[in-house]
């Protein structure tokens, strides 16, 4: 059941996305908002903002709490996460607010008008925040206000320094319910430099250079989990349709297709920047994206059952600020549905996460194909 989000702008039933469905989802908080959302909306109302005609951009709205509350003003809402966007759409619909009245943007899209008020929820990744602040620069109208909001655990001196360096003079509010606001006055006359993103690194033991947008995990080099899986790839010579699930920059699917060129590879991730990075890397490696498909998606939602021969998976262990294995569990369930009979799921994970028992319960089988002190590679067949 949705909870009621009560603000000075109104009261709204809101739910997280995806909705908790069972014991595997108990790690997720039930609310679709946090104290930083409450603090920001309280401050905006006290300031008489946003005005009815003020062009407003919301960045990183987790599940639509800010977008729903401020839907009375010309509004753009931008997020890198398709989960956040789906949650926002669902909560707009639950409150009878036409989504067509609000422009929902991904992290690589820009508003179509100058922005007078920018509201930035502070993301977990400082790199993503840096890129977003650089992207704000050309969008801001003269005299525009920029206000950040986050829980105190996500706002550090480095956060304030980043606002000041990229946009202009910055100060912070007092804490309220462990939340803070950041107030930044853009100073275009002092702006220097450009975003350092996307960044690039040379893929070890190859001639390839991989592109990584700001939201991609392990932007500076190949993460050790993916490295271990690449050293122990299963034999995919007899397969046709494979999926790189939670693909990031696409390195697993890319290297599989490099070894078995006849593979048809599908790349799925919940991050728009991850999919853009994967698409770029495939085209750079092969000269085209032929034989590859790319989708921003909530795991494998909507993918036809019994349609894949093998799935490679290096699952994340957090959704935004929430740490847990609920996303991995959803990935495993979706993989079981999408694999053909006899199809292979190959997972790399930290030893302590206990994925073996989950896969054994779901597939009825699971074996360790390789291990070291930190990671295990698990294989399960449908």
Summed up:
With 382 residues, this protein is α/β, with parallel strands linked by helices. Helices cover 27% and strands 29% of the residues. It folds into two domains: 3-190, 3-Layer(aba) Sandwich (Rossmann fold); 199-381, 3-Layer(aba) Sandwich (Rossmann fold), CATH 3.40.50.150.
Ranges where pLDDT stays below 50 over 5 or more residues in a row are: 318-324
Whole-number average pLDDT?
94
Alpha-carbon Rg, integer: 22 Å
Distance between the termini: 34 Å
Folded structure, characterized:
This protein has 382 residues and is an alpha/beta fold. It has two domains: 3-190, Rossmann fold (3-Layer(aba) Sandwich), CATH 3.40.50.150; 199-381, Vaccinia Virus protein VP39 (Rossmann fold). Helices cover 27% and strands 29% of the residues. The protein has helices at 35-46, 65-69, 82-94, 126-136, 157-166, 224-231, 251-259, 272-286, 326-338, 355-363, and strands at 3-7, 10-14, 56-59, 75-79, 103-106, 115-121, 140-151, 170-172, 179-184, 199-202, 209-212, 241-245, 264-269, 292-296, 308-313, 318-319, 322-323, 339-350, 367-371, 375-381. The strands form five sheets. It has a seven-stranded mixed β-sheet, with helices on both faces. It has a seven-stranded mixed β-sheet with strand order 14-13-12-15-18-20-19, sandwiched between helices. Helix 4 (126-136) links the parallel strand 6 (115-121) and strand 7. The protein is globular and about 65 Å long. The relative contact order is 0.10.
């Amino acid at each position: 059941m949705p909870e009621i989000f009560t603000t000075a702008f109104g009261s709204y039933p809101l739910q997280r996305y995806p909705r908790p469905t069972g014991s595997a989802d108990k790690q997720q908080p039930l609310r679709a908002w946090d104290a930083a959302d409450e603090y920001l909306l309280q401050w905006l109302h006290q300031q008489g903002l946003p005005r009815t005609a003020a062009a407003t951009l919301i960045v990183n709205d987790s599940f639509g709490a800010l977008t729903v509350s401020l839907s009375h003003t010309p509004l753009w809402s931008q997020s890198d996460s398709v989960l956040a966007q789906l949650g926002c759409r669902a909560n707009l619909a639950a409150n009878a607010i036409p989504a067509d009245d609000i422009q929902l943007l991904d992290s690589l899209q820009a508003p179509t008008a100058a922005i007078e008020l920018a509201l930035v929820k502070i993301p977990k990744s400082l790199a993503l925040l840096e890129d977003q602040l650089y992207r704000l620069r050309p969008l801001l109208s003269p005299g525009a206000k920029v206000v950040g909001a986050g829980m105190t655990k996500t706002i550090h001196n480095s956060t304030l320094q980043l606002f000041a360096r990229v946009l202009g003079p910055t100060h912070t509010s007092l804490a309220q319910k462990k939340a803070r606001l950041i107030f930044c006055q853009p100073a275009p006359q002092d702006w220097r430099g450009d975003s350092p993103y996307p960044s690039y690194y040379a893929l070890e033991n190859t001639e390839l250079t991989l592109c990584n947008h700001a939201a991609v995990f392990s932007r500076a080099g190949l993460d050790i989990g993916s490295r271990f899986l690449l050293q122990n790839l299963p034999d995919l010579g007899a397969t046709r349709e494979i999926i790189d699930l939670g693909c990031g920059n696409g390195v697993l699917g890319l290297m599989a297709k490099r070894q078995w060129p006849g593979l048809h590879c599908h790349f799925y991730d919940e991050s728009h920047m991850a999919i853009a990075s994967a698409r770029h890397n495939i085209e750079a490696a092969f000269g085209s994206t032929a034989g590859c498909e790319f989708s921003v998606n909530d795991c494998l939602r909507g993918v036809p059952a019994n349609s894949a021969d093998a799935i490679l998976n290096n699952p994340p262990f957090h959704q935004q600020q929430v740490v847990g294995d609920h996303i991995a569990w959803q990935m495993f369930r979706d993989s079981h549905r999408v694999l053909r009979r006899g199809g292979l799921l190959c997972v790399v994970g930290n030893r302590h996460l206990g994925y073996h028992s989950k896969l054994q319960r779901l597939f009825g089988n699971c074996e360790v194909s390789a291990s070291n002190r930190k990671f295990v590679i698990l294989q399960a067949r449908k």
